[in-house]
Amino acid sequence: MSEISEPRTAGGAWLIVAASAVGALVAAFNAVNLGNGIAFSFGAWLVLVSSILVLGAALILALHLALSGASRGVLAVLILLGILGTGAAAYFLIAWVLVAAMGVALVGWVIHVAADPSPLD
Which residue ranges run through the membrane (predicted)? Predict the structure, then answer.
C-alpha cells in the first residue's frame, strides 16, 4: 500500500522571497525618484542593498540548497537581522511601503521557523 504524503513546501521562505523582492523594487524606485526626498541618499541605497541581500539569502533557504542544519539556522538568524535592519532603516526614511514589505517578510520568517519542513525530513 502506498503512503499518501503532504506536499513539501517552504512557504515561509517563499513569502520572504516575495516580500523582499517587492521591497527591493520599492527601494530601487525610492533610490532614484526625485520626488520623495530620499533619492540618491545613503539610506536609500542601504535599504536597496539590504533588501537584495535578504532576497538572496531567502532564495537559498527556499530552494533547499545543500546546507547543513547549523548553516540553515545561521542563515535564518541573518535573514531576521536583515529584515529588522531594513525595516528600521525604511522607517527612518519614511518609506512606508518598504516597512510593510519587511513586515510581511517577518511574518514569512516566523512561518519558516515554526512550520516549514526541514529539507532532510
Answer: 12-32, 38-66, 78-111
